[in-house]
Each structure stands twice: as structure tokens, then as C-alpha cells.
């Protein structure tokens, strides 16, 4: 059973996060007593290499092909952080110029309003939210930089023209799956070896997707194998790497 909480002054129902952040008061009463509302600062974590954004502990690709779409994605992230920390449903207004400042690591003030339908007694406007861009490295960039790949695709007996077609397919898939933040040069490793090409991929999921597209396009023999590559402390079991051999059938 979820216990309800109420404002100590006016009696309106408030969320747990709102009660804790505003000292058992609703936003409106807190503002009347203290004169201003100071919401906790919000940190937007970005990958310094591909500018993916970290949302609830997971990296999400940021579509940089549209300034408005990138601004909308980050605004939704800020709204989620305010709801998580303060229990307030807010609408954040973020401009492309402010997104560029976040990419530079600057601290900015972002305009926001409270959802009056959910918080009828709350003031509709808030002081600018203190938002700052901080940088880390996403798992994909970290694996590519450290050459720590989960899977390898081995292409054998393909003609140069066919390899060019596969290179186009791989690049398209990597761009689509990463939301434009990665491509053939940054998301995978393409190595020419004796008899063909090795494609080293950061994730098994991506490797299977590439193999599936190649099988639909070419008549190939497929063989999968796993190899122990160390011990995963987080999973408590051996870390295994996948190798998918794709050999072109003789016609």
C-alpha cells in the first residue's frame, strides 16, 4: 500500500519526492514561505566521442542530424531528472544554442514550467534550472578504443565488389542502430586478412544483425563458435566471444 503525503500548510496531496525536497510542503507554499524555489542542479552526461547521452544508467544515441530533435531528447532527459529528484512534472524549453553550450561543458539556465494539471496549486513557472554537461565515454566507444569486441564476423571467398556491397550494408546498419552517432569507422573495425575480411563488432546483437542481412543478400555457409575470453566479474561467469564465419558458396 502506497502512503499518501500532504502539504503541511495547505493540505494538498504531494508526491514523496516533492515532500522531501520542499520540507513537507507543496511547491506553491514553499515559494510563499521562502520567496524562491531552488531545484537541485541537473547533470547531462554525454559521451565525449560520439555525444550519446546517458539516460537512467544506459547510453542512448543522440540524433545529431536535427538540432531540434537533439534539443527535444535532452529536454526530456532533464524533465525525467526533475521528476525523479523532486516529484514535479515539468516542461523544459531547450534551444539548439543551449545544446551547443552543453556540448562545450558549460553551465546553463534552462527555462521550465510546472504541469498545472498535475500540480494545480503550484506556480506555473520556475526559476531557470541549473543544467551542466559532463563528459564520460560510452560502452561502444570504450570497446572500440580498447579493441574489446564481443564478436567477430569472418567474411571469406567474397569478391572485392561483393565486399564493397557488404561494407555499405554494415555502415548503414551501424548508423541506423546508433542513431547516427557511429559509422563504419567509429562503430566497428574492418580488417582485411588473407582470404577475406574480419569485422570486429562491440556487441553480439549487432554482429547477428549484420550476419542476417548478409545471409539475405548472398548465398553463404554460416558457422558460429564461441571462445572463452576471460572472467566477467559483474556476471560471475566466463566472458565469451562469438565468431561468425560467413563463406560464400561456390555457384
Question: Would you give an account of this structure?
Answer:
The chain is an alpha+beta fold and 251 residues long. The protein folds into two domains: 5-137, no CATH class; 145-248, no CATH class. The protein is 34% helix and 31% strand. It contains eight helices and 13 strands. The protein has helices spanning 16-21, 27-34, 67-86, 96-103, 139-146, 160-177, 184-187, 204-217, and strands spanning 5-6, 13-14, 42-47, 53-55, 58-60, 90-93, 107-114, 129-136, 151-156, 189-193, 196-201, 220-232, 237-248. The chain has a five-stranded mixed β-sheet. Helix 6 crosses helix 8 (204-217). The chain is elongated. The N and C termini lie far apart (68 Å).
Strand content: 25-35%
Structural class: alpha+beta
Adjacency order of strands in the biggest sheet: 10-11-9-13-12
* Number of helices, where a helix is a run of at least 4 consecutive DSSP H or I residues: 8
Amino acid at each position: 500500500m502506497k502512503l499518501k503525503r500532504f502539504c503541511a500548510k495547505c493540505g494538498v496531496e504531494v508526491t514523496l519526492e516533492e515532500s522531501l525536497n520542499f520540507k513537507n510542503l507543496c511547491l506553491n507554499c514553499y515559494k510563499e514561505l521562502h520567496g524562491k524555489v531552488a531545484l537541485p542542479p541537473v547533470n547531462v552526461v554525454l559521451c565525449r566521442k560520439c555525444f550519446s547521452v546517458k539516460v537512467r544508467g544506459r547510453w542512448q544515441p543522440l540524433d545529431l542530424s536535427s538540432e531540434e530533435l537533439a534539443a527535444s531528447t535532452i529536454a526530456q532527459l532533464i524533465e525525467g531528472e526533475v521528476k525523479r529528484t523532486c516529484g514535479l512534472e515539468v516542461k523544459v524549453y531547450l534551444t539548439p544554442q543551449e545544446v551547443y553550450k552543453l556540448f562545450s561543458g558549460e553551465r546553463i539556465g534552462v527555462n521550465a514550467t510546472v504541469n498545472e494539471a498535475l500540480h494545480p496549486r503550484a506556480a506555473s513557472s520556475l526559476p531557470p534550472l541549473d543544467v551542466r554537461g559532463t563528459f564520460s565515454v560510452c560502452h561502444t566507444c570504450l570497446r572500440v578504443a580498447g579493441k574489446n569486441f564481443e564478436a567477430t564476423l569472418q567474411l571469406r571467398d567474397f569478391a572485392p565488389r561483393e565486399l564493397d556491397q557488404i561494407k555499405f550494408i554494415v555502415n548503414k546498419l551501424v548508423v541506423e542502430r546508433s542513431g547516427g552517432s557511429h559509422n563504419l569507422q567509429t562503430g566497428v573495425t574492418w580488417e582485411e586478412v588473407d582470404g577475406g575480411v574480419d569485422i570486429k563488432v562491440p556487441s553480439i546483437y549487432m554482429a547477428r544483425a549484420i550476419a542476417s542481412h548478409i545471409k539475405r543478400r548472398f548465398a553463404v555457409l554460416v558457422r558460429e563458435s564461441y571462445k572463452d575470453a576471460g572472467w566477467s566479474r559483474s556476471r560471475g561467469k566466463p566472458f565469451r566471444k562469438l565468431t561468425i564465419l560467413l563463406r560464400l558458396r561456390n555457384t
